[in-house]
Amino acid sequence: MARAIPDLVALLAALSGCGAPAAPTHAATAATTPTTPSPARRYRKLVAGTALDHASRTTFSLSIGGGSAELDEVEEVADGARSLADADRAATWRQVSSRTYRGTAQGAPSAYVLSLDTPGQQPLQMRCTSVEVAAAAAGGVPHSRR
What we know:
By secondary structure, this protein is mostly beta strands. Helices cover about 10% and strands about 40% of the residues. The chain has a 7-stranded antiparallel sheet with strand order 1-7-6-5-4-3-2, covered by helices on one side. It contains 2 helices and 7 strands; from the N terminus they run αββββαβββ. The chain has one domain (about 5-20, about 35-125). The chain is flat and about 45 Å long.
């Protein structure tokens, strides 16, 4: 049971563009759900450190289309990887768990309202919006020494 809280926190962080569904202000705001599946949205959480003696990563993939949604969560560990460099270079990853949440996706103006469920876990109710974030390539931003 103690593990359920970190998993929930990780899941919420993975879906940072999602939140509790807002009640529609009136019927005219409802839009139809697209039938073409959207590209999968991915988030990866990586944890490493000398206190752990291993690295762990959790990958979340969200697909929405045709009035349905699917969220895959895969957790892996790499024994002996104690830094991000170790995890990137020579780590051998071993899957320790996976689960798939499935449910409905209803389109709303500029957002989706998701209702997802998987056996043995708390159901998820989320409102997701698309947000573009500008990012530089690794090494693309000079480091300031000020």
